[in-house]
TrEMBL record:
This is Protein FYV10. Involved in the proteasome-dependent degradation of fructose-1,6-bisphosphatase. Residues 214-225 have a biased composition (Basic and acidic residues). Residues 63-120 form the CTLH domain. It comes from Rasamsonia emersonii (strain ATCC 16479 / CBS 393.64 / IMI 116815). Residues 214-265 are annotated as: Disordered. Residues 242-258 have a biased composition (Polar residues). It comes from the Eukaryota. The lineage of its organism: Eukaryota, Fungi, Dikarya, Ascomycota, Pezizomycotina.
Length: 265
């Protein structure tokens, strides 16, 4: 008497079945993608996507280039150029946002310190002069400003290879990315646009809804995959195609140097 192997196939959770029944409009999805590309500053990719999806962008794609240039300058550490371009675009952006202005100036001080401490005989005078003239007058207006300035100046005291985590983070590229994102949002807000793409808002709403469902002990799967992070098996192919995914090298600057977008990480 022979036994037959089980051919039972896994059944979908009823929640997954309900999700599969939802059929969003392809047009809505296309405009959602376009909104993300425009808001986050991928002009070449937006142009290419508009042509392939046969849709009309709801914003002037050429105007994105100003934000691209500003964020590119910040990502490369050229903060003075970024500030000048922001003021050329709209001087009120920094005038009406002292916190953002101070963050940019502090980042500029970090870049000066990085430069003067890169060699044993580096001259720290430019960094001290900049801190005295640009940040010191602003520091007393806000306790956080004063704390940030003191912490930044500590980089001149301790060797870069032996910094505490709180100081080492100032020299990490993530600080540039963080400030660049805030600048991008401030520019969008000054132009009467949303600070974040609709897709980001939807992801946040989805995370909030899942949290509330679990708190209420709703019957949902143990793990709900967004499906936004590519499989590891495709990572090599995606890396090879990375230089073309955004249309050109200018858009590549906007991909956080190849890191996974914070929205989906």
């Amino acid at each position: 008497m022979s036994s037959t192997p089980s051919t039972t196939t896994p059944t979908w959770h009823h929640f997954e079945k309900k999700v599969d029944e939802v059929k969003p409009s392809k047009t809505d999805i296309n405009y959602l993608v376009m909104d993300y590309l425009v808001t986050n500053g991928y002009p070449a990719a937006a142009k290419k996507f508009a042509a392939e999806a046969n849709i009309q962008p709801r914003a002037d794609i050429e105007s994105i280039q100003e934000r691209v240039e500003i964020r590119s300058a910040i990502h490369s550490g050229d903060i003075q150029t970024a500030i000048e371009k922001i003021n050329e675009l709209n001087p009120q952006i920094l005038d009406e946002n002292p916190s953002l202005h101070f963050s940019l100036l502090r980042l500029q001080l970090v870049e000066l310190i990085r430069k003067c401490t890169s060699s044993p005989d580096g001259d720290i005078t430019p960094a001290l002069d900049f801190a005295t003239s640009q940040l010191a007058p602003r520091a007393p207006t806000n306790p956080q400003f004063l704390e940030d300035l003191e912490r930044t100046l500590a980089l001149l005291i301790f060797p870069s290879e032996n910094l505490a985590p709180s100081l080492a983070s100032l020299l990490h590229p993530d600080l540039r990315k963080e400030i660049a994102t805030k600048v991008n949002e401030a520019i969008l807000q000054s132009q009467g646009a949303r600070k974040e793409a609709r897709l980001r808002n939807l992801v946040k709403l989805r995370a909030w809804a899942e949290q509330k469902a679990r708190e209420a002990k709703k019957d949902i799967p143990d793990h709900l995959d967004l499906g936004l992070v590519p499989d590891k098996t495709n990572s090599d192919h995606d890396h090879d195609a990375g230089t073309n995914q955004n249309g050109n090298s200018e858009d590549a600057v906007m991909t956080n140097n190849g890191d996974v977008d914070p929205m989906v990480s």
